[in-house]
Known about the structure:
By secondary structure, this protein is α+β, with helices and mostly antiparallel strands. About 55% of the residues lie in helices and about 20% in strands. It contains 15 helices and twelve strands. The longest helix is centred in the N-terminal third of the chain and has 39 residues, at about 20-60.
Amino acid sequence: MDNTGFIARRYLFSRKHISLISTLTYISIAGVTVGTALLIVVLSVFNGFYDVIKTILLSSDPDIRIESSSTSIFTENKELTNILDGIPEIKVYSHYVEGKALLSYGDDRNTVVEVRGIDTDRFFELVNIEESVTSGVFEVKVRNRKPGAVIPEQIRTDLLLSTGDEIALLSASGMKKALTQITLPRSYRFDVRGSYLLQQVADGPQVFVDLTAAQRLFNARKGISGVDVKLYDNEQAASVKKILQSQLGENYTISTWYDLQKPLYDVMYLEKWGSYIVLMIIVVVAVLNIIGSLTMIVIQKRRDIGILISMGYSKSRIKSIFRKQGLFIGLIGCGIGGSVGFLLCWLQQEFGIIKLSSAFIISAYPVDVQLMDITIILLGSLLLCLAASWFPSKRASEIQPAEAVRYE
């Protein structure tokens, strides 16, 4: 019968009196508990902020974007359309044309803007932007032989524009052509139909116009800058990207929602796992206490270990006793710490105990507990506790029975 677990428990938790060894054991368990709970809470908060930023970005970014790898404008072809129509994961796709232009109003009010021509029949299925309209309506179709434009709220405020005002847009290529060919620059006029306000994490706001009007503005004829694709599940973006890349070849650049904002997402991941490494130092300190407490148990129980060896216990069974002590400390610390971490995350998620500044886009710290993070935290802490028992168990297995009982 294997009773190494029973011996390990008796060595760790003596019922007779509280000794220095048992005190160190409790300190070790407390360290593992605090470290595990903090890791769960901190990584869950990072996950929460990641989801908030992702939601904001996906309100204006597509799940997948298709662009030409060689030119800024390319001609739509039937092959591309057939491929997109043949992928069941794709919910909707929409063509667009974009570029920089000079927006002017009156004689002295102007600014450089990013203009985006959209297919209005599909755009609203792709992006949920109508809720962000602050004045007028989000409508860019030709009305009374005049195309419409929807502008960012900041530009409307800076240039003192109102719904119904007429603005002029002059593309960069139009300005270049006027300078090189010594001709008057040709600008295109649009009616301001409305304004919108989006929380911008990256990139600046855009002026939206009709796709055909944008093609005239940028002298693109029937060309497009790219195709935005929305999936039924944005987590399938990477797999759909592989399918598209294999079918479209190297003539097209395929970007997922992650690729479009890769530097920002990478920084958030770096911060998250950097925090994981730093907070694991708390567990490492607890592990050092485990080494100390188990080593002292080996010294204190030297005679008992000698008797066990003389009774026929092998070196592997002696090692097992002290390895199980490290395992028990890890299991208790991880169990209590995991429970406390889950409880704190649940309280924050349900009641928003810790608030954020009123100027922020959400009222309280967001929390998202992920199974993979919990697994990594608990396994990491448990493995460190097991590693801490390696030296004491090795030392215990090397005790000679005759030497252990000689002076007892």
